[in-house]
Amino acid sequence: MLPLFPLLISIMPCPSCIPDSNFGSLWEAIVGYGRPPGGVLPLTGGNFIFLFQGIIYDSGSMPLTHTRELFAKALKGKYALGAFNVNNMELLQAIIEACEEEKAPVMLQISKGARQYANPVYLKKLIEAAVSLSTIPIAVHLDHGDTFDLCKECIDEGFTSVMIDASHEPFEKNVEITKKVVDYAHKHNCVVESELGHLVGAQFDEGEEGGAHSASGHYTMPEEAVKFVQETGCDSLAVAIGNSHGAYKFKGTQHLDLERLKLIKQALMDAGLGDYPLVLHGASSVPKDLADEINKYGGKLGTDTAGVPEADIEIARRTGCTKVNIDTDLRLAMTAAIRKVFSENPKEFDPRKYVGPARAKVKELVRHKIKDVLCCAGHAFD
Ligand code: G3H
Ligand code: 13P
Ligand code: ZN
């Protein structure tokens, strides 16, 4: 039997290495809480590895970084965090490799659909692998949690933040549901994003003035945002300023209501809430070349695909959108690459030959976002 006690002592004197988090059991041990569940083996350089159910885990890998810490640094550094959706191994690898090479902190976000598709355990294990193979700060976030129970599940699993999305509910109900999640999350050292307003897309807004220009009351009102944050205690707020999900965001001119964003940010500041972090959902730009490539190789996307101009995202970043959510663009990149392989080589049936190029294309897209749009590249070790 190994002398566990001295070895445990040897890893404990480094509290700064222990993240400010509250992960459960195995996840907790893997991401660095310093409470290994199995035998502990010493390694050089202050690292340790431990054995659990026949598997060796290496604590030398960087633990998850708390969302709170990523937000604080992003606000200070005036850059935006890329929050990229993860559904499978290749997407995760593409995101992590791009961020690792560009030295960018990153938020991996997982939707309810992703959990259903991939199984939460697979996702967790994949992220563990990503954490152990990289050096950048990585936070894990629940995207669009629709119930308290789902949020609780993710909080208990060690997610560093969750989103509760009750934005379809009336204001008071949205407050009530959000507050319940906030109360639980804060007791378990997790932070909460909530949403106020409706992310109306061109489809939803049909018949009205058109997505970004609608005056139909779907957008976030500055004074309501203040009341909402004060009443719920949520840690960040997703705003509706003409943004929407998917590949068909605008009917007419593509632009966000950036003036409204400014007013929301200012209202929160004036109310004493400080440099309060706002979140931009639906931030894919739906690049024309990707849509064209998909269609060139047999796809049938409409001619009316439209995304948020990158120039608007840059202004949103400078105006206070600290977290920027991107999923659709990753899907488009992946689809374009796979279609190209199939079209050029219909005999191909080795998945590595088409999913591999798809991964490479997603990686380049993520690289572009973090370097040229979000400006978080180079900030991993600030
Ligand atoms: O905002 C939604 C994200 O794109 C996730 O989509 O629910 O299909 O996984 P999903
Ligand atoms: P897109 O559909 O624009 O990529 O938005 C993703 C998103 O908001 C995930 O929450
Ligand atoms: Zn979203």
Describe the structure concisely.
This protein has 382 residues and is an alpha/beta fold. It is built from 14 helices and eleven strands.
Q: What report would you give on this structure?
A:
This protein is of the alpha/beta class and 382 residues long. Helix content is 45%, strand content 14%. It has an eight-stranded parallel barrel, surrounded by eight helices. Strands 1-2-3 form a three-stranded antiparallel beta sheet, with helices on one face. Strand 8, helix 9 (222-232) and strand 9 form a beta-alpha-beta unit. Zinc ion binds next to loops. Glyceraldehyde-3-phosphate is lined by residues 85, 111, 113-114, 143-144, 245, 327.
Q: What's the SSE blueprint?
A:
Layout: H1 4-11, H2 25-30, E1 39-42, E2 48-52, E3 55-58, H3 67-77, E4 81-85, H4 89-102, E5 106-111, H5 112-118, H6 120-133, E6 138-145, H7 148-157, E7 161-164, H8 171-187, E8 191-196, H9 222-232, E9 236-239, H10 258-273, E10 278-280, H11 288-296, H12 310-319, E11 321-326, H13 328-344, H14 351-373
Parallel strand pairs: 4-5, 4-11, 5-6, 6-7, 7-8, 8-9, 9-10, 10-11
Antiparallel strand pairs: 1-2, 2-3
Bound molecules: glyceraldehyde-3-phosphate (G3H), 1,3-dihydroxyacetonephosphate and zinc ion.
Residues 85, 111, 113-114, 143-144, 245, 327 line the site of glyceraldehyde-3-phosphate.
Key attributes of the depicted protein:
single chain, alpha/beta, 45% helix, 14% strand, disordered N terminus, binds glyceraldehyde-3-phosphate, binds zinc ion
